[in-house]
Amino acid sequence: VRAEISYVMVKPDGVQRGLVGEIIGRFERKGFKLRALKLYQTPQEVAEEHYKDLSSKPFYKDLVQYILSGPVVSMVWEGDGVVASARKLIGATNPLASEPGTIRGDFAIQVGRNVIHGSDSPDNGDRETAAHALAARRALTTARRRALACARDRAFPAALWFPEGLVAWDQTISPWLKE
Ligand code: DAT
Ligand code: MG
């Protein structure tokens, strides 16, 4: 049986405003387990897949543009009931309606700049994780290529440029990846 996971993403405004540590801290203190974490620029097709259920909404174009406006921090959090609990930690979609003490309630005002995403069902947790894992894998390939080029240029051993962290996302996420 696979563990329950939620795909949680600090959106570009949250990254830009320096809220990453605050947000990770709240999930850690709650007690959930961080299974994967990566910073990257979301490819357009991943953003569109992520929000495909909302594609008929009038705000869909702005929403995708917002997600593409800067790097995001993608995380996979694991634990019993993590999907519903993460939604509580995050707060209501419209930050003006989010309770104080929630992430959106404490740090946001606009629905179009609401700092963070969390899956709304365990199935969507799996789906969104798989979609973003492809983006993370592509970012990893780019990072690996750059690292290799860099290692060649500077005549450092390539191993120096491959800390465990570079491959961690791929490995920890593999149970949820549909090949
Ligand atoms: P949530 O992010 O709380 O799961 P959602 O899935 O209904 O909310 O919508 C996804 C995002 O779309 C949401 O975080 C912000 C944006 N959004 C939702 N409703 C909106 C609206 N009425 N106007 C503008 N943006 C909206
Ligand atoms: Mg949603």
pLDDT averaged residue by residue? 86
What is the 3D shape?
A: globular
Unreliable runs, pLDDT <50, ≥5 residues? 156-168
Which value, in Å, is the CA radius of gyration?
Answer: 17 Å
Strand content: 5-15%
Major sheet: size, sense and barrel closure? 4 strands, antiparallel
**What's the N-to-C terminus distance?**
19 Å
* DSSP helix fraction: 40-55%
Family: Belongs to the NDK family.
EC number: 2.7.4.6
Domain Nucleoside diphosphate kinase-like: 3-133
Keywords: ATP-binding, Kinase, Nucleotide-binding, Transferase
Q: In words, what does this structure look like?
A:
Belongs to the NDK family. GO terms for molecular function: ATP binding; nucleoside diphosphate kinase activity. This protein has 179 residues and is α+β, with helices and mostly antiparallel strands. It has 8 helices and 4 strands; from the N terminus they run βααβααβααβαα. The chain has helices spanning 12-16, 20-30, 44-50, 60-67, 82-90, 103-107, 122-154, 165-173; strands at residues 5-10, 33-40, 72-78, 116-118. It has a 4-stranded antiparallel β-sheet, sandwiched between helices. Helix 7 runs antiparallel to helix 8. It is globular. The two termini are 19 Å apart. The relative contact order is 0.19. Residues 156-168 have low confidence and may be disordered. 2'-deoxyadenosine-5'-diphosphate is lined by residues 54, 59, 63, 93, 111-112, 114, 117, 120.
Topology:
Elements: E1 5-10, H1 12-16, H2 20-30, E2 33-40, H3 44-50, H4 60-67, E3 72-78, H5 82-90, H6 103-107, E4 116-118, H7 122-154, H8 165-173
Helix pairs in contact: 7-8
Bound molecules: 2'-deoxyadenosine-5'-diphosphate and magnesium ion (MG).
The site of 2'-deoxyadenosine-5'-diphosphate has 9 residues, from loops.
